[in-house]
Amino acid sequence: MSNWLEISPLDQIPVLGSRVVETDNENIAIFRGKDDNVFAIKDSCPHKQGPLSQGIMHGTSVTCPLHNWKIDLNSGEALGADEGCTNVFETKIENGIVFLKSPA
Amino acid sequence: MKQNLVLIGNGMAGMRCIEELLKLEPEKYTITVFGEEPYGNYNRIMLSPVLANEKTLDEIMLNDEQWYVDNNVTLIKGNKVTEIHRARKEVVAEDGTTTPYDRLLIATGSTSFMLPLPGADKYGVIGFRDVQDVDTMVETAEQYKTAVVIGGGLLGLEAANGLMKQGMDVTVVHLMDTLMERQLNEPAAKMLQASLEEKGMKFLMDHATEEILGDDRVTGLKFTNGTQVDADLVVMAVGIKPNFELAQSAGLHCEHGIVVSDTMQTFDPNIYSVGECVQHRGATYGLVAPLFEQAKVAANHLAELGIARYEGTVTSTMLKVTGIDLFSAGDFHGDDDTDELVFHDASNGVYKKIVLRDEVIVGAVLYGDTIDGTWYFQMMKDETNISDFRNTVLFGQAHLGDAGHGDETRVAAMKDSDEICGCNGVNKGEIVNSIIDKKLFTLEDVRAHTKASASCGSCTGLVESLLAHTLGGDYSEAPSKKPMCGCTDLTHDEVRAGIRKLGLKNHEEVRRSLDWKTDDGCAVCRQATNYYLLCEYPDYNDPQSRFINERAHGNIQKDGSYSVVPRMFGGMCTPADLRAIADVADKYEVPEMKVTGGQRIDMFGIKKEQLPAMWKDLSNAGFVSGHAYGKAMRTCKTCVGDSWCRMGTQDSTGLGIKLEELTWGSWMPHKYKLAVSGCPRNCAEATIKDFGVVCVDSGYELHVGGNGGIKVRVTDFLIKVDTEEEVLEYAGAFAQFYREDAHYLERTAPWIERVGLQKIKDAIVDDEANRKALHERFKVSQKPSQIDPWKKIADGAEANEFAAIKVTG
């Protein structure tokens, strides 16, 4: 069964920045793009598990703070010549509130 | 509706342009490529290794036929374009078909120049230009013995070497009395000739061919001095001739080649041209590096971005003959206004000559030891003033104090298992294989695919040398200008100049006014631009464009935790300070502590959400941030000085505290360290710091540009001053000049090597007014920087950055 979890008002997430969501099992990074598009991705780089939430966001990707891998926020895939993939999650915005589809 | 783009010439320059265009605008054009040869696009500079049996044709293919299919590009091979109808905007091929174009790109390249000698049309007389020539040579070598190469230039010698490898007896005939006279001076040319003779090559110098002898097939050559020589094969390698007949017949303006503007446009605005067929500002080029630069510019205009300009290329040359190292660039003959530095060791086969004009390298010839060719070439392009290391420049970059790789810079002699990149554990074999298998051309490609030199960058020179050795020589990476990143074609200096000239106030204005290719930039340009903006406007800050360390004011560790280092001015502390730190460590259960090399205490393993509370406690105890995480002023290391030490000459700790009080909190292009030693024994290691003071009995020696990191570099002596006030003024002025002039992520050591110490002296030693103005600007920039960021956050600023959102489910 899937249900939507209420996360945060959109304006509490910086533009081109992120917040960390701590769930029972794992940390999920919520990113907010320039056009208020929102992405959710497991907060762990496929390379050496760096916290992607702490990276710099640009377009629809984020650069991992540990070793500069670029990760596509839509697919979780590593970009460029690197190979690897991490989980992404569905999000939606309703009345200015960000929801995350429960991974459970 | 897509437009039609037609490319005439399926060679390296034209196809490079198509690849660049597909990167910029993949959907804009329907692309058709006409190629005369029955292959995909291959790497023409690698024909010599193919002839020498060192590579196969498959290994040198750049775009195989599948590539054209995958990229929706129509390749019409083995069909020559015979006519361009400019009025109807279409091209007519040999078989009569017509293809319409909206934009036309002509990249017809060049052909071997064939001497118009009697008998030049005989069977067995060829040029050295394409796969067919190589096939002819290989077939001839199977049946015949004797080959003559006319032309003792780069191409001729490579052809001769290849024919020898095919088992032929080869004689090189040259009009002049020294080889490669366009690239080499006499001593180097003689050494080259001697090494080639040792390999078995024969030479007839100072010989002009009068006639080619034989019936249907060539049998020999007759010279103007009346002598003759036998030959079963004659290879003419006397130069190349740009192919512009097609363009000329279409009425395009041509001189020695197709004349183009700085945007690679011909006289017809719908027609562009790149490659060896082109004449730009009076020059034609036969090397790959300039052709690739042209391709990039043309692609930019075909994509209608309209901002790139080609301004000509300074080229360098290397000879691709295995076992012979030769490098040449620029004006190596010199004139009355130039100086030459020469190193000549005949028995060891080493010759180096550098030509200087006003202390700037304008040309170089290296033979036998070419490892520093790329370094000299870079300095030549950067116009670096070398007066400060003129005495040692011939001994190479390693002699400047490269402790990291000094002994292992001969990449050719290295074993495949030897490690090149220590950060990422990449050895020579892996890099060479990637370059060959993945067809890599540039340093950026190698970094992306192997990670070699992608971390600390200290092995960049080695990787560049490996590229040059593997690709063979006449390709020289290091374009004349290096863009900041893939988001822009502008260099660091150009972006900075743009910000200043146009008064750009924020990231969006920079990207919009300077025509960025991406909406948000990337991690590289955002951080650099952020620094340039805050250097101009000290209050400026965009947290989302800063590396996490500077956003969270802590140093991110491999497990995602942070470290906390409170500042201890000059390394001095009291029992109360230490007790306060110990209390904080207990309260937050800090897993590990360490005394740092910067004379303060590091607490490791702190979770991000703990940081604000910890900083509040530290702030209440009187500490401020140590900026151990930032591209910022870090520490001022001191020795005890004359208050305790029996050798001390001045109060080095007192001065160190004053220097740290002046400079703490300052954002810099890179990390920045100071030190003060109380006497020339230099216990504080001031001569490997960015700004070091060595106290002497009569005053203070000031040293700049030292580095104890990746590449150890001893400081340059700047000046000796008499008072502490002067030390502080110089410290502020030097810091500000570095802040305003260096590139982001360039430490003082490489900055000084790039711009030359003289520039620093001119700015702050010889110009008192400028020194005082710089010092004043530094103090202004320090006002917002010395509001402690830890205290601000402890008081509630940027709370969202540190608080996670907790949900259940």
Strand content of chain A: 35-45%
Tell how many strands the DSSP assignment of chain B holds: 39
Q: Radius of gyration of chain B, Cα only, in angstroms?
A: 31 Å
The proportion of residues forming helix of chain A, as a percent range, comes to under 10%
Low-confidence parts of chain B: 401-409, 473-478
**What is the terminal separation of chain A in angstroms?**
8 Å
**How do the strands line up in the largest sheet of chain A?**
2-3-4-8
Largest beta sheet of chain A, briefly?
4 strands, antiparallel
Parts with pLDDT < 50 across at least 5 consecutive residues of chain A: none
> Main β-sheet of chain B, in a few words?
5 strands, parallel
Number of strands of chain A: 10
* CATH H-level superfamily of chain A: Rieske [2Fe-2S] iron-sulphur domain
What number of domains of chain A? 1
Based on CA inertia axes, which overall geometry of chain B fits? globular
